[in-house]
């Protein structure tokens, strides 16, 4: 029995030690494609990157925590493991942030918001954020249609031998957290590699919190917050020949959770339940000619998602609001490089989306989307410039009614960078992007909250920045970025939460966003085995209603947009025990656009500690412990949805 239990434990542990490796290395006959930190200094537009090394070294605990380490990002977090988490970049709203998973944009036609809580770090090789259009031009037109794109790349293993390889992890922690993960990878021929991964997460999330009402302070406990989720993936990689590759991914996610209510008048009673399911199949094909000056990239994806929502304590009986959505998507991109300094890309995308629900008012809307982009890039030793023209067409209709208006628009963008000094990595960069966002199905059709006449958002982004990278000595490396930006948004659609599932949508009219993003990354090598690293970022984001000067809400900061936010992480790598301390924080924000009395959300600073040790016992065993919110700070990100106080997680990881 003990041997069986030992085998189970070993099979439920995963090697974070591979996260500490660099690009394309050979480790125990396994080629691990897990990138180290990539510099954003050379980019023509802001790009931030957290590789697998950074995620481990700086004590990142989940995707939400990873995003807090990036400048310009605002997270809406309902708290606890599995609590809904959406991201907004530079005050533009979550629908303006595309999320790419292994190279293809994730789809959400219902409300346009990707819930990032479903993407755990177990299998993540890197997280990056690109704002505007940088100098990477070989992308689908759909990716170019977002002001910002968050890219999540999974941890890739390409064995050089033909034996089975297993990566495993088991994690446990406060509030009933139990999270096992396993990944199997094997090469079956010189050209074919397959991998299968599986993950289960359980959490009770019944964490304590403090409730303050003027002078009265009570100690409460979160209830109705349990979740059970399962996530599985299969990846098939086929190197057809030296010039062509095919990669197919099959993905399934299933999460059943109880939704806690708002903490109002000393009660957080809720009967809300939500089951999210998502399945997709995506294929990614690349090829090039013998001379290498012509490359083709073809993407295809079929996506299905269901949201089954019920409220058992709804005043008029059980409320059922369930939705099913489907997407069929295809993309082709052609890259042509006639000479070394010049490149052109043409991309054509098509997507069909439809949605139906259990509501009596359901009209079964659908949309055909056609996007084309033409991009040119010119680069010499000290100067890089990129220009793109995107044409977007949205054809809207519904099965049982009259659809919203069709929409089309040309959207230009450009970016450039110039190296100021010949022998030093000191650059200035500038970028401009005009983009067009059509309303989602929820915004256009949702009963009582949607409008077929809702205007689309038109956003214009301006960015001016300076970047610097320097090896100060053989011991110390340093890089820094500073970007100032202005975003003009016309007919901005603002989502304000009614509860965790239902949001109200309104047109604000005009919004002016002015801000600054700054980041610093530095490392000091005490010797060959000891390194101290610092990573920090700061964001100033003034996001104001500029619709009418006569309105009492003119100059009001938009809801859930703090003016100041930032984070810092300090790590110490050494032969004994590696550890890091880190903190994130933001100033106060408002729960609505009108700034009613009592609806402000106080700012906060949260700190954490992480430690890990890797041991070679035939395979790689890594033991890790994390203390989150170490000072037990009580705070909210969403109004009346408290975040957890002090908690811990522990993980044992193993690979063989």
Chain-wise SSE layout:
Elements: H1 2-11, E1 25-27, E2 30-33, E3 47-51, H2 52-57, H3 63-68, E4 73-77, E5 85-89, E6 97-101, E7 104-105, E8 124-131, H4 141-144, E9 148-154, E10 156-159, E11 165-173, E12 177-187, E13 192-203, E14 208-213, E15 216-221, E16 227-239, E17 244-259, E18 272-288, E19 294-311, E20 319-320, E21 323-339, E22 342-357, E23 365-379, E24 383-398, E25 407-421, E26 424-437, H5 441-445, E27 457-471, E28 476-497, E29 503-527, E30 530-545, E31 564-573, E32 578-586, E33 589-590, E34 600-601, E35 604-616, E36 620-628, E37 636-638, E38 641-642, E39 647-655
Parallel strand pairs: 6-9
Antiparallel strand pairs: 1-2, 2-10, 3-8, 4-5, 6-7, 8-9, 11-12, 11-39, 12-13, 13-16, 14-15, 16-17, 17-18, 18-19, 19-20, 19-21, 21-22, 22-23, 23-24, 24-25, 25-26, 26-27, 27-28, 28-29, 29-30, 30-31, 31-32, 32-35, 33-34, 35-36, 36-39, 37-38
Which percent range describes the beta-strand content? Answer: over 45%
* Cα gyration radius (Å): 24 Å
Helix content: under 10%
What is the straight-line distance between the termini? 22 Å
Shape: globular
Largest sheet: 22 strands, antiparallel, barrel
Q: What low-confidence regions span 5 or more consecutive residues with pLDDT below 50?
A: 1-37
Would you write up a description of this structure?
With 656 residues, the protein is mainly β. It contains 5 helices and 39 strands. The protein has a 22-stranded antiparallel β-barrel. It has a 5-stranded mixed β-sheet with strand order 3-8-9-6-7. The protein is globular, with a radius of gyration of 24 Å. The relative contact order is 0.14.
């Amino acid at each position: 029995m003990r041997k069986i239990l030992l085998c189970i434990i070993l099979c439920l542990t995963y090697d974070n030690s591979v996260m500490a490796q660099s690009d394309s290395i050979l480790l125990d006959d396994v080629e691990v494609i897990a990138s180290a930190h990539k510099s954003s200094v050379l980019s023509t537009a802001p790009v931030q990157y957290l590789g697998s090394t950074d995620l481990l070294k700086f004590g990142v605990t989940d995707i939400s925590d990873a995003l807090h380490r990036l400048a310009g990002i605002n997270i809406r977090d309902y708290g606890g493991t599995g609590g809904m988490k959406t991201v907004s970049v530079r005050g533009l709203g979550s629908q303006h942030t595309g999320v790419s998973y292994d190279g293809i944009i994730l789809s959400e036609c219902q409300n346009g918001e990707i819930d990032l809580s479903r993407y755990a770090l177990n299998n993540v090789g890197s997280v990056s954020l690109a704002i505007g259009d940088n100098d990477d031009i070989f992308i689908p037109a759909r990716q170019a249609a977002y002001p910002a794109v968050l890219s999540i790349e999974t941890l890739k293993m390409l064995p050089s031998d033909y034996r089975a390889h297993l990566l495993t992890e088991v994690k446990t922690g406060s509030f009933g957290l139990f999270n096992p993960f396993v990944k199997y990878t094997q090469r079956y021929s010189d050209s074919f590699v397959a991998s299968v991964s599986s993950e289960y997460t359980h959490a009770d999330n019944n964490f304590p919190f403090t409730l303050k009402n003027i002078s009265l302070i009570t100690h409460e406990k979160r209830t109705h917050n349990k979740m059970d989720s399962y996530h599985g993936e299969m990846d098939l990689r086929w190197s057809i020949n030296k010039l062509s590759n095919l990669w197919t991914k099959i993905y399934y996610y299933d999460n059943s959770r109880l939704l806690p209510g708002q903490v109002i008048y000393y009660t957080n009673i809720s009967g809300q339940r939500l089951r999210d399911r998502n399945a997709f199949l995506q294929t990614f094909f690349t090829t090039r000619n013998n001379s290498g000056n012509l490359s083709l990239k073809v993407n295809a994806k079929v996506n299905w998602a269901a949201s089954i929502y019920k409220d058992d304590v709804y005043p008029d009986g059980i409320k059922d609001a369930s939705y099913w959505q489907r997407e069929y998507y295809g993309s082709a991109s052609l890259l042509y490089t006639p000479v070394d300094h010049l490149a052109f890309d043409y991309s054509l995308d098509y997507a069909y989306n439809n949605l139906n629900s259990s509501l009596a008012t359901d009209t079964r809307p659908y949309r055909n989307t056609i996007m084309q982009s033409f991009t040119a890039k010119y680069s010499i030793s000290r100067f890089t410039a990129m220009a793109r023209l995107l044409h977007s067409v949205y054809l809207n209709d519904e099965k049982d009614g009259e659809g919203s208006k069709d929409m089309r628009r040309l959207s230009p963008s450009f970016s450039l960078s110039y190296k100021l000094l010949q022998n030093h990595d000191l650059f200035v960069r500038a970028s401009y992007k005009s983009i067009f966002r059509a309303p989602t199905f929820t915004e256009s059709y949702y009963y009582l909250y949607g409008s077929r006449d809702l205007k689309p958002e038109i956003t214009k982004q301006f960015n001016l920045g300076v970047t610097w990278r320097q090896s100060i000595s053989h011991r110390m490396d340093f890089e820094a970025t500073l970007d100032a930006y202005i975003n003009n948004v016309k007919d901005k659609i603002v989502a304000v939460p009614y509860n965790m599932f239902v949001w109200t949508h309104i047109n604000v009219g005009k919004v002016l966003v002015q801000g600054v993003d700054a980041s610093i990354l530095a490392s000091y090598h005490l010797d060959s085995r000891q390194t101290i690293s610092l990573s920090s970022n700061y964001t100033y984001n003034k996001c104001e209603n500029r619709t009418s000067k006569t309105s009492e809400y003119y100059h009001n900061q938009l809801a859930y947009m703090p003016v100041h936010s930032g984070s810092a992480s300090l790590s110490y790598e050494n032969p004994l025990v590696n550890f890091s301390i880190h903190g994130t924080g933001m100033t106060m924000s408002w729960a609505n656009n009108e700034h009613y009395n009592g609806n402000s959300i106080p700012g906060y600073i949260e700190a954490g500690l992480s430690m890990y040790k890797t041991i070679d016992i035939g395979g790689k065993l890594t033991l890790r412990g994390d203390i989150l919110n170490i000072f037990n700070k009580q705070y909210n990100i969403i109004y009346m949805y408290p975040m957890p106080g002090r908690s811990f997680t522990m993980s044992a990881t193993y690979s063989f």
